[in-house]
Design a protein that fits this description.
Largest sheet: none
Strand content: under 5%
Radius of gyration: 15 Å
Number of strands: 0
Shape: flat
Order of helices and strands: HHH
Distance between the termini: 9 Å
Number of helices: 3
Helix content: over 70%
């Protein structure tokens, strides 16, 4: 069973790195047209859409920045903290 939890933990870790790469690469306009950025966008966008829909129902929808990535990072961290005790 610990192998299952380790796999989930590291999958979440990988998603975190993809989200971080998406944020960093979004600051570089020339890279937005690359296949690499397109791949990262396709992988991470399904995680961000539900959060954006929830945000659109709040006052945060009028903020000038997209906080959906931050919320997904926090949720991944919480899930990893919940899984960590079962890894070993």
């Amino acid at each position: 069973m610990s192998l299952f939890f380790r796999a989930i933990y590291y999958l979440l870790e990988g998603i975190s790195y993809l989200l971080l790469a998406r944020v960093i690469l979004s600051w570089i306009p020339q890279i937005r047209d690359s296949k690499f950025y397109s791949f990262i966008h396709q992988v991470t966008e399904p995680l961000l859409i539900p959060v954006r829909k929830l945000i659109s129902k709040t006052k945060a929808a009028n903020w000038p920045i997209d906080i959906s990535v931050i919320i997904v990072f926090i949720l991944i961290g919480i899930l990893q903290m919940m899984i960590a005790p079962y890894m070993y």
